[in-house]
Amino acid sequence: MGPAPVVIAGAGPVGLATALLLARWRVPTVLLEAAPHRSAVGSKAICFQRDVLDILGRVGVAGAMVAEGVTWTTGRTYFREHELYSVTFPKAEVPPWINISQARVEELLGARVAAEPLVDLRYGCPVIGYREDDDGVDVLTRDGPVRGSHLVGADGPRSAVRRLAGIDFPGRSFEDLFLICDIKASLPFPSERRFYFDPPWNPGRQVLVHQCPDSVWRIDWQVPPGFDLATADLDGMVGRITGSLPYEIVWVTVYRFHSRVAASLGRGRVFLAGDAAHLFAPFGARGLNSGLQDAENLAWKLALVRRGAPDRLLDSYDAERRAAALVNLAVTAKTMEFLVPQTAAQWEWRRTVLERAVTDPGARLLIDSGKLAEPYWYVDSPLTTATGPVPEEPGAARPPVPGVICPDAPVRGGRLRERFGAGFVVLVGRPERVAEAAALGAGLGDVPVEVLALPDLGIEGAPLGEGAGPDSVHLVRPDGHLAAVLPSFSAEALGAALHRAIGR
User: Fold this and answer.
1) Where are the beta strands (DSSP E) in 206-293?
2) CA 234 – CA 225 distance, rounded (Å)
3) Cα(332)–Cα(369) distance, rounded to whole angstroms?
4) What is the pLDDT of residues 450-498, one digit of tens each?
5) For the whole model, what pTM was predicted?
6) Comparing C-alpha atoms, which of 475, 468, 469, 470 is closest to residue 452?
7) Do 430 and 481 touch, CB atoms closer than 8 A?
8) How many Cα atoms sit within 13 Å of 68 on the Cβ side?
């Protein structure tokens, strides 16, 4: 009998990705899905951020996603008939954003799971309980117990695992209603994110328009209280956007948004990820992107603990990812205060800012139609060898300091970030340092450490920022985040940073 698997509840994109990421570490998983089969209804989440595409590249689906998805580099914001401002992201080999439906991403991930012998996917198998002991966990199902080393709850907002673990899910649910409508049409709009405040076709509220593959357009309306999908004039609503052009309604749903973060993302051998751990308002694309970052953060830590790293490495999952969730919660809560004000003062502030913004560039900086997702900075993580203060506000320029995701750069044979994911990577400024750094890495036991010299990669230190010098050292975690930046090579400092990065 081989090693006990990690048991994962929920075969949505976060659960599927967690299983595939663990398979890269040769960790077997049993993936338990309560539904009898995969559902492919509606677009659901559609925006995938470039750093998350690197995660999806490590499980083999990013290439197909980029090929099929709609790339966009510009987001525009309007008030009534006025364009207030636009934001443009630089083009790169990995696009800054692509639009592709969650259903299609699940299909791509599902195909990889079906071809992966280390993943045992079982539909129609809800988790109904679990028993934990010092050596593992027995996960109870209607078909009998499944023995595992750990249990991961990636089973969505109504997570059975979260409930069984007794983990609170504080926060609030809002009464404001939003309508999502996917339509198929040939519209003369460019591939951009377009956000409309108070447009003629939805006065006093807002509309968000995104293009998706296969001539599908995703339209999000804020709708009035009491909106009834059964009696609504959908054709009239859509026609105000499409004009006389023909269209087909592909999917439609009404939702309320929620702002919640679990009281803990781990308890004993049980962990939460994705919507089981946190729920955010959708404007800014911080939901699924954050859930996939949960998956990678947890997968490499589970894998290394199973290889002998200290159990406290897993404690850093809650420390890092709950901190990320709380920032996302704060950012999206502030967005929703502007989009759907809850008090008279908030309504007046919104009205004043939007009207001023027509002629006042300064007022445009106060508009919040959704701060777009970005990776969290683990500067305060117990795994990070800190070097000093960094900017804290969301959206600030990302300096390549410990805790921040490592910048990308062209290297011989591809991109720098393509070298990450299979273990720790030590980037040294001088080739003669490789052997000594490799010896330090070997001291970690069964923890993979690769040492690469920047000159051998064909890059200078410039992409790695001011901390990169002729003898600098950058320690990169399996998830691509910098664990340490040393201005000059020191065996003692590098050894300490390596041990800190695995929780020793």
Assistant:
1) 206-212, 216-223, 248-255, 258-261, 266-267, 270-272, 278-279
2) 16
3) 10
4) 999 999 999 865 668 766 778 999 999 999 999 999 999 999 999 999 9
5) 0.94
6) 475
7) no
8) 17
